Amino acid sequence: xxxxxxxxxxxxxxxxxxxxxxxxxxxxxxxxxxxxxxxxxxxxxxxxxxxxxxxxxxxxxxxxxxxxxxxxxxxxxxxxxxxxxxxxxxxxxxxxxxxxxxxxxxxxxxxxxxxxxxxxxxxxxxxxxxxxxxxxxxxxxxxxxxxxxxxxxxxxxxxxxxxxx
Length: 165
Prior knowledge:
Mean pLDDT: 82
Low-confidence stretches: 10-18
Shape: flat
Strand order of the largest sheet: 1-2
Number of helices: 5
Structural class: alpha+beta
CATH architecture of the domain at 29-139: Orthogonal Bundle
Order of helices and strands: HEEHHHHEE
CATH topology of the domain at 29-139: Topoisomerase I, Chain A, domain 4
């Protein structure tokens, strides 16, 4: 006769659940928001500019320059993530969605401004196709916007043949 083994009951209330994976980088949304602000600030430098006029007078001003563009990959790296996707997936955590969406929007806006302010049209065209769903379409229309009429004309044995589409 087989006997059942006496199994001990485990009280799960006292034991933490092991959900696996890496512990979260940021414990609170406010901690993430602060670090995101640090990233955007790190992309700027302050420079002292000296301007000398014709008479030799020197004027000193402080100017602020963006020395590196905002990028999703740069943001993810600065925040300590291993990939862009890790940052994007972080928005599934409660309270983090709006903070990450706002940061991504700021990056997107900055990229748009760089692309549209430049003299090279390739960047804006690329961005419009990949983000604003524009497409290269070429539409050929006939007389008064109607369909194109095609006539095939060829000569054979001294005769002209015309075929209409």
